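Aim 2, interim progress: modelling of the calcium ion-bound target.
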Amino acid sequence: MQSPLLRSFSRRARELTALTLGTFLLAACAHSDNGDALIVETEEHTLAVTTVTDGLNHPWGLAFLPNGDMLVTERGGDMRVVSADGTKGDPLAGLPAIQSRGQGGLLDVTLHPNFEQNRRVYFAYSEPGDGGASTAVAYGTLGDGGLTDVTRIFSQVPKLTDNGHWGSRLVFDDEGHLFITLGDRRAQDEAQSLENHIGTVVRLHDDGRIPEDNPYVDHDTALPEIWSYGHRNIQGADLHPQTRELWTGEHGPQGGDEINHTRATLNYGWPVITHGEQYGGGTIGEGITHKEGMEQPLHYWVPSIANAGMTFYTGEAFPAWQGNLLVTALRSQLLSRLVFDGEDVAHEERMFSDTIGARLRHVVQGPDGLLYLLTDERNGRILKVAPASE
Ligand SMILES: [Ca+2]
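Predicted structure of the complex, ligand included:
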């Protein structure tokens, strides 16, 4: 077995090798097509990171339009179109009242599966109302300069005055159901209740109707929109590329960030079981990690990375990453690449932790197979990650 000293020495040697290689590549790129890109060596690919645009107020969600433009939400309350060359459009007109305060504001955005026919855009936001605010979802028709026929299809019950833990990602499955991931609004004990939407995943038809095969449709007291419960704050979601089932990333307490295969009726445990603790220390509830009838996460991070957005990589630009789950982190300012063997994590690589230097809110795979990252800053950026030119 290697001594700690040797391990530390060999790690340092690897870092030096990476540093030397990085310097070599930086020098080399003056004579290549990489321009002023940040060159980042990773285990499988050499990456060129460039800024598409900046000046976005805490960008939160991004959806590619069929023409290659990007529809981007800002937590500050604006949605706008950013063209592939980085030109920012004006904020779109027609959005409803949005409470941009604390962690709340305009959150995720996604296109209807038949967007090319109906131009319908779905978005999640913090909706003010009686008693405070809650996460709501609406759609509108995208035209020149704005959304029209904006229709709210969901509003989380209850509204609360707290400004934290809103979720929320929006994912359509292959049958056209819309999954809405939510947070506990810092009313953590309510995440175990089926009589409100606190700490749940909700599943709806595209017009807000409740699918007849939703798991709690015939239950006496549970709300029929609910798909799963016992969640803390789900800020990442995607369909698994093979099974096409919903996987989610849950921003946990200190030491309890999770990835879950999020199945109907199941209880994901918060706050009764968690691998985390209170921020600053101290147990949550009884301080237990397992309980009968409550699901274990597929993966959890101790210490926390503060995970946010996630996407399964399925493109051609980074062949060695196909099928991997990419997860952004806020506090740790990194992109985690998780390699799964079935539902077990076989390997994790942490990228960008000492190169980009910003909280990363979201990662989206573009139609070009490249990655697009959103930085969580007042002067927020869209970053493009491409293979470096040789
Ligand atoms: Ca859990």
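The chain is about 5% helix and 40% strand. Residues 32-387 form a domain with the Neuraminidase fold (CATH 2.120.10.30).
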